[in-house]
């Protein structure tokens, strides 16, 4: 009998393995790859509602909120109340920009080495495939919600 193949498990295993490699390289900066990712997104888009940032990052609000707390404690991001008192606005601080600048060369190094090992074209194709996976995952979630 052929062993069961699970797309989700395969993606999770790949994500864990690659995240570990990035975390190890980023360790001297004091950031984990998830924190680096949040800071780089916040830096690129400017102040935005937590819900929009969560959507941009394909994360649920609760998970993003948990990931933001240590960044806020360390003054790397600022969370403030929006015009709607339920809304939370996220922005990167000057301290966060400095931390991101310190981490960037480390990230660039491991990113470059990853692309050397898999090929630039293949890495780009992988990123494009992951965008498709995010879209399909969202479609499946919406379909599941409609079924309940």
SSE topology:
Layout: H1 7-26, H2 33-45, E1 48-49, H3 50-56, H4 61-73, E2 77-81, E3 88-92, H5 94-118, H6 120-147
Antiparallel strand pairs: 1-3, 2-3
Low-confidence stretches: none
| CATH topology descriptor | Arc Repressor Mutant, subunit A
The overall pLDDT average reads 92
Written as H for each helix and E for each strand, in order along the chain, the element string is: HHEHHEEHH
CA-atom Rg in angstroms: 17 Å
CATH architectural category: Orthogonal Bundle
What is the general shape?
Answer: flat
SSE class? mainly alpha
Question: Main sheet: which strands, in order across?
Answer: 1-3-2
Q: Tell me the CATH superfamily.
A: Winged helix-like DNA-binding domain superfamily/Winged helix DNA-binding domain
Strand content: 5-15%
Total helices: the number is: 6
- Give the proportion of residues in helices: over 70%
> Mind describing the biggest β-sheet?
3 strands, antiparallel
Report the span from N to C terminus: 33 Å
Count the beta strands.
3
How many distinct folded domains? Answer: 1
The CATH class designation is Mainly Alpha
Supply the key terms.
single chain, 148 residues, mainly alpha, Arc Repressor Mutant, subunit A, three-stranded antiparallel sheet, 3 strands, 72% helix, 8% strand
How would you explain this protein's 3D organization?
- The chain is mostly helical and 148 residues long.
- The chain has a single domain, classed as Arc Repressor Mutant, subunit A.
- It has 6 helices and 3 strands, in the order H-H-E-H-H-E-E-H-H.
- Strands 1-3-2 form a 3-stranded antiparallel β-sheet.
- A hairpin with a 6-residue loop joins strand 2 and strand 3.
- Helix 2 crosses helix 5.
- The longest helix is centred in the last third of the chain and has 28 residues.
- It starts with 6 loop residues before the first helix and ends with a helix.
